[in-house]
Amino acid sequence: MKSKATGDLALVKKMNSYIVFHCIRKHSPVSRAQISELTGLNKATVSSLVNELLENNLVIEIGPGESSGGRKPVLLLFNERAGYAIGVDLGVNYIRSVLVDLNGNIIEERYEKLKQKQRELAFDTLTANIDALIKQVPDSTYGIVGIGVGAPGIVDQDGNILFAPNMKWREVPLQSMLSERYQLPVIIDNEANAGAQGEQKYGAGQGIRNLVYLSVGYGIGSGMILDKELYKGTSGFSGELGHLSISFDGKECSCGNLGCWELYASEKALLEEASHLGYEGLDELIAAAQLGNEDVLKLFDHIGRFLGIGIANIINTLNPDCVMIGNRMSSAEQWIMPAIQQTVQQRALSFHSEALKILFAELKEHSAVRGAAHYAIDRFYEQFKAI
Ligand SMILES: [Zn+2]
C-alpha cells in the first residue's frame, strides 16, 4: 500500500504537471524559463515535467525564440495534433459533424439532412457520419479521444435523451449506444448547452460572465452561462425556454402545453407562416429578403417581435450581460434585429436592460457542433488534472 506521503507527492506532481500543461496550452509558444516565471514553479521541476509532456507527445519543441542575451531558448508548443475529437450537432432535421484537433480547429466536416426521425434510422445516419469522420483521422499519438453530441431535447446526466418532442423521441440511451459501438468516451448534452459552450470557448461569448445563448432553429432551446459556468439546474434540465408560455390558451405544443414561445418565434413558426406565400425553407426566405420582398420582410419582422417578447422575459428574470441568438435563425440577423430591439426596449424593465447586449452567434451554425467537440476534448484533459 502507498504511504500517505507518497500519495501526496504523486498528487502534487500531477497537479504541477497539469499547471505546466495548461500554461503551455495557453501561452504557446513559450520557453521553459517563461513557464517557470508564469507558474512560480522552479526551473528543475518545470524541466522534468516538460520532459514528460514531450515524451507523451502533448508538447513539441520548436526553433529558438528571442533571446534577451546569451543562448537562445528553445520554445515549447502545445501539440494540438496529438489527438482528435468528434463533435456532432444532432438537429431535428439535419446532422452536422466535425473532426477537430485538440484546440478545437475543424479538420473535416460533414452535413446531412435527416429525413427520417425514427430513432433506429436516425441512429444509422448518425453512426454513418461518425464512421466517415473516423476514416479521415490523421495518424496521431492518441487518435480519437472522444465523441461529443449536442441533442435536441432533455438529456440527463448519464447521456440519455429523456424527451425530444420535435423528434418524438422518449428514453433514448444515446450515450451508451455510442460508447458501446465505438469504445470511446461519449458525452451527450442538450444542443443549446453545447452551443453556449461553443460560443463561450471559441466565439462571441468569450469573456462574458452571464450569457443566455438561444438556439433558434426548428424549436428554441437555451444554454445559460452564469458566472462563467454552464448552469444546468438540479437534474441537468435547465434552459427549456422554448416552452415558456407566452400565449394563454394559445397554439397546442408537442410538449403537451399551450402557447409555448417556440410556436411563435422559431424557424418552424416562420416556415408555417411562409407556407401560404409558397416558400419552403429558411434559405429561400433569406434569398427573398435579400431581394427586398415586402411580404417576407414582414414575416421576419413578425418573428423578430415574438423573439423580443421572450427575450424581454429572460432579461427581467436573469439580468444577464448578454442574450445571444444562435443556430439557424442567426443568419436572418439583419431582418429580425430591429424588431427584437424595439420589442425588448418596450417590454424589458429599463434597469435590467441598461447594460444588456443582444448579440448574434459568431460561429453561426457551428456553435453547437464545436461546443459538442469541446466536451470530448475537455474530458480528455480531465485525466491530466488532479483528482
Ligand atoms: Zn411546449
Q: Could you characterize what this model shows?
A:
- The chain is α/β, with parallel strands linked by helices.
- The protein folds into three domains: 4-78, Orthogonal Bundle (Arc Repressor Mutant, subunit A); 84-195 and 368-382, ATPase, nucleotide binding domain (Nucleotidyltransferase, domain 5); 205-362, 2-Layer Sandwich (Nucleotidyltransferase, domain 5), CATH 3.30.420.
- Helix content is 42%, strand content 22%.
- It contains 13 helices and 16 strands.
- The protein has helices at residues 4-27, 32-39, 43-55, 119-135, 174-182, 191-202, 262-265, 267-274, 282-290, 294-318, 333-347, 350-353, 367-382, and strands spanning 30-31, 59-64, 74-78, 84-90, 94-101, 106-113, 144-151, 154-155, 161-164, 169-172, 186-190, 211-216, 220-226, 229-231, 322-326, 357-360.
- It has a five-stranded mixed β-sheet with strand order 6-5-4-7-11. The chain has a five-stranded mixed β-sheet with strand order 14-13-12-15-16, with helices on both faces.
- A hairpin with a 3-residue loop joins strand 4 (84-90) and strand 5 (94-101).
- The two termini are 19 Å apart.
- The mean pLDDT is 92.
Treating each run of at least 4 consecutive H or I residues as one helix, how many helices? 13
Mind telling me which CATH architecture of the largest domain this is? 2-Layer Sandwich
Classify the fold: give the CATH topology of the largest domain: Nucleotidyltransferase, domain 5
- Helical content, roughly? 40-55%
Number of domain modules: 3
Bound molecules: zinc ion
